[in-house]
Amino acid sequence: MATTTTLQPPVAAPATVAPANADAPRSGNWDGGNEPFKASYGKLMMWFFLLSDTFTFGAFLTAYGLIRHKHGVYTGAAKDFFFSTAHWPVPEKVFNSMPGLHGMNLPLAFVALMTMILIFSSVTMVLAVEAGHRMDKADVQKWLLWTILFGSMFLSSQALEWSHFIGGSEHGLAMADGTVMQGANLGANEYGPPLFADLFFFITGFHGTHVFSGVALLVWCFIATTNGTFEKRGHYEMIEKIGLYWHFVDLVWVFVFTFFYLV
Amino acid sequence: MDNTHDTGFIGQSYQGKIEKPNTGWIWKTFWVLVAITAIEFAIAFSMTSPGLRTLRNSIFIVMTILKAFFIVGEFMHLKHEAKSLIWTILVPTSLLVWLVVALVTEGSGIGDRLIHMFS
Prior knowledge:
- The structure holds 2 protein chains of 2 kinds.
- Chain A is built from 7 helices and 2 strands, in the order ααααββααα.
- By secondary structure, chain A is mainly alpha-helical.
- Chain A has one domain (38-75, 83-169, 178-262): Four Helix Bundle (Hemerythrin (Met), subunit A), CATH 1.20.120.
- The radius of gyration of chain A is 23 Å and the shape is elongated.
- Chain B has 2 domains: 1-80, no CATH class; 82-119.
- Chain B has helices at 24-46, 53-75, 83-115.
- The N and C termini of chain B lie far apart (75 Å).
- By secondary structure, chain B is an all-alpha fold.
- Chain B is built from 3 helices and no strands.
- In chain B, 11% of the residues are buried.
- Classes of the chains: A mainly alpha, B mainly alpha.
- At the A-B interface, helix 1, helix 3, helix 4 and helix 7 of A face helix 1, helix 2 and helix 3 of B.
């Protein structure tokens, strides 16, 4: 990896028998003999991708802010709240159920559980990265499996959340013509203005797709770790890069949680 | 912890000594995140009066940014990267704040116009 025009001393490769050329650590000097931001090529590009993804999610959440403020606000007491297309719904009145506990009013309890699952997955991810730094293959495998487990748990929770949102409550919303509107679709919903459900589907759906991609990448990482791909390469930087993506997905959820469920 | 695992690739596996894990800072960050989330929930159910809406939402936003600071700074390691990289990420992101403020104001304006369309 070291060329004659290095500006910085090459990073000492771990004691492996890996060939020093093709699969050398992607840290240290880039091929031009320089190292922008003291970051490896892969990690820097991951950061730039995440920056662009920040704008995508930023656009979603900004659109949510605009549309929410365009609609009326419910100003009465919290206990008298009713669903209507005239005002934006209060989130804790919409998301107040828990799978398996039918009929109980548990505002935001399930989404709190989902938040905890995702924070936990972030911790196990960073533990996998830490194990990679120590070249501890067994630990990397262990923590990757935990992360995959928590990621899948989150996706399943979101599937339950969606099916409940689409199915709707038992009583539904009484319409002017005497019919009852139950659940939600892209055209109408029982909770409030049509755009409320649309934004729910788009924002949580786009985030869920990100989680799904993350789980797929982690499964690939687990297979590569088990096959010894990273060990032969002499570093576990791929886990670090996928880890950056995974933490970003957790970060997006922190914002979705605040702006969709709390505020 | 037993770190003497057999990889089956004696000739190609890592021969160096595996160090002890250093995970204190990870769990510390984890508990900070849990504590902030717990406080958010406590506030969501204790500050319910409509008059406190603005204050409540401001607290939520501050706490969200605090959580983001810990996730990005510690878990994503940005705090320990080169200064130039930190600014490269932070400056474009901070422009989103302006976008949010501008479009939320715009949304209120549109709403007002729609309500008073015929008056």
